[in-house]
Amino acid sequence: MEEDVQGCEHCKRSVASAHFTLHEAHCLRFLVVCPDCKEPIPKSEMEEHFETSHKEAEECQMRQVKCKFCELPMNFSKLGTHEYHCGSKTEPCPNCSHYILLRELAHHRDACQGKQAQPGRGKRISAPLRKINCNSCNQMIPVNEYPHHM
């Protein structure tokens, strides 16, 4: 007697219908489909997969590199423009609480006279999350939100 099976849209595997709901919930929680190769990858391994499986030759203008400000991977050919705009965002100096352009923050920290932050002035904000491109809608999505987005 043949067992009734269903195809999981997320991982593309055939699953017994009796276990399909449980399998699908597990897939959606723990797997993400790589936007480049369309393979299901454990969420915890996505960043490593992206870097090891899709890295191109160092000379190639289309090789993946990360922005020094937000660590977003992108084609090398687009890095200069992206880092110019990304570096235009501001973040408060942890010493003086003045908002400083990200591209100038390292230099400012060296030059800052180490004044302690005054109460009531800006709070420290974290750097933007690393994002990846969704091939379905062509939007940049934070890596940790990509599975939910899909």
Automatic annotation (TrEMBL):
MF terms in GO: zinc ion binding
Q: Which UniProt keywords apply?
A: Metal-binding, Zinc, Zinc-finger
**Any one GO cellular component localisation term in the record:** mitochondrion
- A Pfam family it matches: TRAFD1-XIAF1_ZnF
| The TRAF-type domain, residue ranges | 23-70
Zinc fingers (TRAF-type) span which residues? 23-70
Q: What is this protein called?
A: TRAF-type domain-containing protein
Say which species the protein is native to.
Loxodonta africana
